[in-house]
């Protein structure tokens, strides 16, 4: 499926055809997005929101056009609810600073899940330490599914925020976020969703989900690095304090008093990554043209095929067996350290990630120091899954 759009997939590594199965860490970029970046640099680059000149106008139109593409992609009500950030990590830190630091106080509680990436743990821990806030954690079962009854029990009058991942990067679990958001709202608790692993693979509708914040990264969805999105309901963004101070986020400055700009500009201090934002817009065009439903179906086919094949290998244990999963296959091979698995796979041209995947609490829950993780994108093929399985068999030959 449109494999020819991705020049990097033709690469040979260690004399073998590259099999790129590290898409959860970062996906590859199609020629259409690369071309858009080159066109911007060649014909449109200037600083935005400033000049009266032609090029500044071109750059501003393209940058604001990308914001509108993101709005449409998420079905947000208004484009001023879309803030460009460096990535998911910065988006979450923005909410921690802009909302958490302003509105949360000693004795308050924040609910996180045991599935979170460090990006949705550490900022809240920093806030907790600073303010004397308690963090409560939704536990999971042995399949890596969150326990909904335990979740409901965590709420009380002190609960001030639920920060939850849509899809687990380490296990692939897809959380029932719509129901969980509805529950939190019944308890008058706002919700931030970490969509880093969801936005590239599922259709996301923030109005349907009714989340108050939604964060994701461009580089996991065929876009450039250095760009990400914070969606926030206008009513929330408006009452938050700015994250950074500087140019573009102000209406007027004197040494006595500074008046902040309106949203979303209040949160975009300084010259933003203009090219990367435009590249993200092109990536959204590319994915939308294929169709998120088509992408999801293709990735499910790859995951089901890989799971069936790997399950047949008696020395492999799959970690993360939720009923609803995105295309992530985490596993360990009996008696072999995941790093050795990764190294042998690499010599076969197969790129996977090994380690704790920045989700150490997940590793602790399953009593493993690390896992090997293959993660698929729509441009992968069943033949590549076969190569993954053959490479795993080779690991067993070497170590078994
Ligand atoms: N949240 C989740 C669920 C993620 O998977 C990641 C990155 C992040 C947040 C942080 O995103 P960033 O773009 O700001 O870095 N996950 C991974 C991964 O699984 N392997 O490498 C990065």
Tally the helices: 13
Helix content: 25-40%
Distance from first to last alpha carbon: 36 Å
Task: Work out the strand percent.
Answer: 15-25%
Specify the CATH class of the largest domain: Alpha Beta
The main sheet orders its strands as 4-10-9-8-7-5-6
Q: Report the average pLDDT across residues.
A: 97
Residue windows where pLDDT falls under 50 for at least 5 positions = none
What class do helices, strands and sheet pairing give?
alpha/beta
**Molecular shape:** globular
- CATH topology-level name of the largest domain: Aspartate Aminotransferase, domain 2
The CATH H-level superfamily of the largest domain is Type I PLP-dependent aspartate aminotransferase-like (Major domain)
Radius of gyration from CA coordinates: 22 Å
Describe this structure in words.
The protein has 400 residues and is an alpha/beta fold. The chain folds into 2 domains: 257 residues, Aspartate Aminotransferase, domain 2, CATH 3.40.640.10; 109 residues, Alpha-Beta Complex (Aspartate Aminotransferase, domain 1). Helix content is 39%, strand content 17%. The strands form 5 sheets. The protein has a 7-stranded mixed beta sheet with strand order 4-10-9-8-7-5-6, with helices on both faces. Strands 13-14-17-16 form a 4-stranded antiparallel beta sheet, with helices on one face. The site of ligand 7TS has 17 residues, from helix 3.
